[in-house]
Amino acid sequence: GQNIDQPTEMTATEGAIVQINCTYQTSGFNGLFWYQQHAGEAPTFLSYNVLDGLEEKGRFSSFLSRSKGYSYLLLKELQMKDSASYLCAVRDTGNKLVFGAGTILRVKS
Amino acid sequence: GAVVSQHPSRVICKSGTSVKIECRSLDFQATTMFWYRQFPKQSLMLMATSNEGSKATYEQGVEKDKFLINHASLTLSTLTVTSAHPEDSSFYICSAIPSEGNTDTQYFGPGTRLTVL
Fold first, then answer.
1. Hey, of A37, A46, A47, which one would you mutate to test binding to chain B, going by the most B CBs within 10 A of its CB?
2. Which of B27, B49, B111 is nearest to A96 (CA)?
3. pLDDT, tens digit, for every residue of A37-73?
């Protein structure tokens, strides 16, 4: 079966760093994606990992360990606008995305 | 960047009516599009994969006769919710994969909020 786990909620302070973890057990693996979704809006693409290691993109970085079935999204210099839901999604061998339930991040001043 | 649009953004309809939602890739061609449904405070659930020129592939538990999908061209897929009922009220989101270029990423539309009275 397909199983993707992420924490339900996290709270962090403006200017700080936060790490959102994601573990997965899927029948196939062809990449892991992180999306940001504000309430009532569609997800926007943040990052993509297919090989082990760290991908950095400005204030956002994403890490993947395929042997451990583990990824994290790292957000630096948090801003209030980063308050959103962060979705971890695994792409199976057929291009379909399986989404985790999402982590609601609240950034407080 | 790759832009996907959906129309309408919101729709309210009476129980028993049918509603059509359009998904368009504006600046790229997409052989494959996906339709998702998202209930409040839940994640996206894939409903079906829409392939241009062929029948859609539905996920387990999704009624193909209720959720009609037509991928008429390389830039347009439509989802028709037939005989809608209140339990069909949800946020429907489509995504598209470019046929060329960056074929690794799904680009999402802005979603359609369906409310069935």
1. A37
2. B49
3. 998 888 899 999 999 999 998 999 999 999 999 999 9
**Shortest CA distance from B5: residue in chain A:** A42
- Say which amino acid occupies B21: I
B78 closest CA partner among B48, B106, B44, B115: B48
| Residues of chain B contacting residue A31, judged by C-beta atoms under 8 Å apart | 104
Choose the mutation target among A3, A32, A35, A45 for the interface with B, i.e. most B CBs under 10 Å.
A45
What are the pLDDT digits (tens) for B39-48? 887 888 999 9
Is there a cis peptide before residue B8, judged by omega within 30 degrees of 0?
Answer: yes
CA–CA gap between residue A46 and residue B4 (Å, rounded): 16
- Asked whether the beta carbons of B25 and B4 are under 8 A apart, the reply is yes
The answer to whether A96 contacts B46, with C-beta atoms less than 8 Å apart, is yes
Q: Which residues of B touch A38 (CB under 8 A)?
A: none
The 3-state DSSP class for residue B65 equals: coil
User: For residue B21, what are the β-bridge partners?
Assistant: B79
A48 contacts B43? CB cut-off 8 A: no
Least-confidence region, from A15-19, A39-43, B113-117: A39-43
Closest CA to B106 of B18, B6, B35, B12: B35
DSSP string, B72-87: EETTEEEEEE-S--GG
